[in-house]
Amino acid sequence: TRTPVNVTVTGAAGQIGYALLFRIASGHLLGADVPVKLRLLEIPQGLKAAEGTAMELDDCAFPLLRGIEITDDPNVAFDGANVALLVGARPRTKGMERGDLLEANGGIFKPQGQAINAHAADDIKVLVVGNPANTNALIAQAAAPDVPAERFTAMTRLDHNRAISQLAKKTGVAVSEIRRLTIWGNHSATQYPDVFHAEVAGKNAAEVLNDEAWLADEFIPTVAKRGAAIIEARGASSAASAANAAIDHVHTWVNGTADGDWTSMGIPSDGSYGVPEGLISSFPVTVKNGAYEIVQGLEINDFSRARIDASVKELAEEREAVRALGLL
Ligand code: NDP
């Protein structure tokens, strides 16, 4: 029998955590034959709610779930962790400046990075979901110098999935017929969903659409503002779809991309496509044997170039801001 994989989830008592934990425990994160041990990290005020969620997890009698530990100590939560999903973050509240937000998140992601550095398993894979996800990932990475830099990633898979769904709807095909879509840049309103290399039922998506105005005026803003539209409709932010995307991200990272397809992940740039080295930016990636690679050689047209550059500029500014705070 396989040894259980240790999966740490921060902000476990939050909305996304609630939608995430049951799917991890039922085998959707890693595979239907992989047992898991869960470690739930919460702030002290969240511990009681996390215990309630753990009671419900017990009550599911998931055959793959081999244990649940709840703690407010990152050193305990990340001890031996193989996969870490960093969901808990300081939300932007009304009137809060970006610098204050980054500083508050520095107070969360720096100690978590340090704890990962000191205690996580050698094969640790980290996904940051809590916003601003790309820059929070950068803060955690900087605090974990002994962990290979590429193990710190940020989630743009929800944007990727949203874009696939919009494109499928527009072109009247099943989502499974959409391939090679790319999200570039920051998980923020500046993100750029790129269809120029995507395929719709085997044909080039941009040619099938043949409508740059739809791309610029409908598609891109719909994908980028989808989170706000969901808050407006549901009265609460997207949680199940964000959890689903986190599951997809890790599942792909562990199990690989399909032949001929790729996915989008926020990963440390190696300088590809003019993205300054070290920024955690979204790229098209293929994954094999648990390692991702940036898809190389894509031609970037002017339409795409301007939008990638704008999002990357925002990431560079966020990096400068956290550097000024002494977090890098
Ligand atoms: P959620 O579970 O709804 O969201 C958690 C984080 O995910 C937020 O930063 C949120 O960013 C982000 N996020 C990323 N993508 C999305 C998306 N598509 N839709 C919605 N959110 C997204 O927040 P809750 O407030 O319900 O729960 C947070 C929990 O984290 C609380 O239980 C709190 O106690 C805990 N916490 C734990 C910490 C720790 O473990 N050390 C530290 C801080 C908090 P955004 O707000 O920008 O939408």
From TrEMBL:
Q: Where is the Lactate/malate dehydrogenase N-terminal domain?
A: 6-145
- What EC number(s) does this enzyme carry? 1.1.1.37
CDD domains to which the protein is assigned, alphabetical: MDH_chloroplast-like
Instruction: Supply the Pfam families for this chain.
Output: Ldh_1_C, Ldh_1_N
Q: Which residues form the Lactate/malate dehydrogenase C-terminal domain?
A: 156-322
Q: Which residues bind NAD(+)?
A: 11-17, 105, 112, 129-131
Q: Where is the active site?
A: 187 (proton acceptor)
Kindly report, in one word, the top-level EC class recorded for this enzyme.
Answer: oxidoreductase
Q: Which reaction does it catalyse?
A: (S)-malate + NAD(+) = oxaloacetate + NADH + H(+)
Keywords in alphabetical order: NAD, Oxidoreductase, Tricarboxylic acid cycle
For this protein, the record's InterPro entries field holds: L-lactate/malate_DH, Lactate/malate_DH_C, Lactate/malate_DH_N, Lactate_DH/Glyco_Ohase_4_C, Malate_DH_AS, Malate_DH_type2, NAD(P)-bd_dom_sf
Similarity comment: family membership: Belongs to the LDH/MDH superfamily. MDH type 2 family.
> Record's HAMAP family?
Malate_dehydrog_2
Q: What does this protein do?
A: Catalyzes the reversible oxidation of malate to oxaloacetate.
Which named protein is this? Malate dehydrogenase
Q: Which organism is it from?
A: Streptomyces thioluteus
From which lineage does this chain's organism come? Bacteria, Bacillati, Actinomycetota, Actinomycetes, Kitasatosporales
